[in-house]
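Trying the structure run again after the queue cleared.
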Amino acid sequence: MLDLTIIILAHNEEMHIERALKAVEGLAKRIVVVDSFSTDRTVEIARFEGAEVLQNKFVNYAKQFEWALENANIETRWVMRLDADEVVEPDLHQEMLVKVPSLPSDVAGINLRRKHIFFDRWIRFGGRYPLILLRIWRHGQGKIEQRWMDEHMVVWGGRTVEFRGGFSDHNLNDLSFFTDKHNKYAVREAIDVLAKKHSLFSLDDSLSASSASMQAAGKRLFKERVYNKLPFWLGPLGYFVYRYTLQLGFLDGRPGLVYHFLQGGWYRFLVGAKVYEYERQMKTCRNKGEMLHKLQQLTGHKLT
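Done. Tokens:
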């Protein structure tokens, strides 16, 4: 086993948690599931599969993972972030066992190439593969950005390397779950957009090509400096057309049409529409304090 702690955040993940845990059997000294008081069998299954379980009230993903890093009593050399609906595939499992112990001391983090599975089909096109994300880091040299949405792990004090083994995001829930989840995501992303636009509170901008991946840093830069300044109807339309045609999303078949339209068109439009909705309600606010208070009322999230 690697000198590694794997942290998995979970809430009502009985459909996925066993699969996630079995995929990392024999890989890590410790597996810690941080549960936000699930009402299904998530905790029971996690403990049966040998994971340690901690529980904490969920605010957002960044705060929950920060709590996990602070309260899991991590003593291993390496730490890994894994979602309950993600799967470490056999080739990545073996690659980690072979390569991690021999990494030089100047390596602080490991980027993985995530694939997305939708309607049981690997979405290969539309710019969705590979998504290069930093998911493994040396303990004491990594943190999670404190943002309401699109938070990334970042490292310091060393360089990053990239592993090429299989690592997939494969959620088994239906489209109703998908749209409900993305509706909640849209609220959180709108909070970040408005916070930056009106300087309501500071956002963690630790992400860079050296602290994580060049791909992730480039996408963040384009979104904040270009995309978010476009009319809210133009950005989603242009992005979907770009993904589906120039990035060959149409080659992903019927599952790809559904996925690219919902995730690349509808979701992006929903974020823009929520920003527009909230700004209309905030027009009467006289200062940033009132704007922040109003945004808390509109979103139902405590932002201070």
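The chain has nine helices and twelve strands. Worth checking whether this holds up in the mutant runs.
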